[in-house]
């Protein structure tokens, strides 16, 4: 049995690269689809937001001469490409899914609104929420927080390459230690980069807990749903 009825799963665009330097690794994509299918089989309603960093990052584009607004719009389109890829992978394993976009682009995806998203979730569809918030200057972390709050998710699951929140970057600092749980206020006080500040503040103010965990280890998503103590719980 799952301890959550409805979740917002945030996936990293970079993680979709798998062993590649760019784009989408088909093996990683199929692993994600299989994990999501397992959790959907528990009766969990699943909303998903995917980043676009494996294709284009708006913020890094500005350092190369791109206008920030244009760069962020390119990043939004990158998230749509990833969302379509995940939707296709889910369909191939027998999971119904819909791509909703924050920017009108029918027939690529249906234009997002909260009530349509919840209707699909209640019908048992996985709902992939793409194109961020539809606005520049907001990250997909903020998009995830916003959508998680809007669809009234019980929790936001932030799937990353790292197995939780640490005192420092564990890839750079071997002495970094992991938190089993931490408050939003402590994240502010320690200056930890779990999500950007806008996303963190939205979750704090709307009491949306976040679990940061390693999505790239197959089976971890189901373990989190079944209440195993992996990753880090961030809460008020």
What's the SSE blueprint?
Elements: E1 6-11, H1 26-40, E2 45-50, H2 58-62, H3 68-92, E3 97-101, E4 110-111, H4 114-122, E5 126-130, H5 140-150, E6 155-160, E7 165-166, E8 178-179, E9 181-183, H6 184-190, H7 197-205, E10 210-214, H8 220-225, E11 232-235
Helix pairs in contact: 1-3, 5-7
Structure description:
With 236 residues, the chain is an alpha/beta fold. It has a single domain (6-235), classed as Acetylglutamate kinase-like (Carbamate kinase, 3-Layer(aba) Sandwich), CATH 3.40.1160. The chain has helices at 26-40, 58-62, 68-92, 114-122, 140-150, 184-190, 197-205, 220-225, and strands at 6-11, 45-50, 97-101, 110-111, 126-130, 155-160, 165-166, 178-179, 181-183, 210-214, 232-235. The protein has a nine-stranded mixed beta sheet, sandwiched between helices. Strands 7-8 form a two-stranded antiparallel sheet.
Number of strands: 11
Broad shape = globular
Radius of gyration: 17 Å
Name the helicity range: 25-40%
SSE pattern, N- to C-terminal: EHEHHEEHEHEEEEHHEHE
Distance between the termini: 25 Å
Strand content: 15-25%
Give the CATH level 1 class: Alpha Beta
Compute the number of helices. 8
The SS-based structural class is alpha/beta
Biggest sheet details: 9 strands, mixed
CATH-wise, what's the superfamily? Acetylglutamate kinase-like
CATH topology: Carbamate kinase
Low-confidence stretches: none
Spatial arrangement of strands, main beta sheet? 4-3-5-2-1-6-10-11-9
Mean of the pLDDT scores? 94
Tally of discrete structural domains: 1
What is the CATH architecture assignment?
A: 3-Layer(aba) Sandwich
């Amino acid at each position: 049995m799952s301890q959550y009825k409805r979740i917002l799963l945030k996936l990293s665009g970079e993680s979709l690269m798998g062993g590649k330097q760019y784009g989408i690794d088909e093996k990683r994509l199929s692993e994600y689809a299989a994990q999501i299918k397992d959790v959907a089989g528990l009766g969990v309603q699943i909303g998903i937001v995917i980043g676009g960093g494996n294709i284009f990052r708006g913020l890094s584009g500005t350092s190369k001469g791109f206008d920030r607004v244009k760069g962020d719009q390119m990043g939004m389109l990158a998230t749509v490409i990833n969302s379509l890829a995940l939707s296709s992978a889910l369909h191939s394993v027998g999971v119904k899914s819909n791509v909703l976009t924050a920017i009108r682009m029918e027939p690529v995806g249906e234009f997002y609104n909260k009530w349509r998203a919840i209707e699909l979730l209640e019908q048992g569809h996985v709902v992939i929420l793409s194109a961020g918030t539809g606005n520049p200057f907001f990250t997909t972390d903020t998009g995830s927080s916003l959508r998680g709050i809007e669809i009234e998710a019980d929790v936001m699951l932030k799937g990353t390459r790292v197995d939780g929140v640490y005192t420092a970057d564990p890839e750079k600092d071997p002495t970094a230690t992991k938190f089993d749980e931490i408050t939003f206020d402590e994240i502010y006080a320690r200056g930890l980069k779990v999500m950007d500040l806008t996303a963190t503040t939205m979750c704090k103010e709307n009491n949306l807990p976040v679990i940061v965990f390693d999505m790239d280890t197959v089976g971890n998503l189901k373990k989190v749903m079944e209440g195993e103590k992996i990753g880090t719980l961030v809460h008020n």
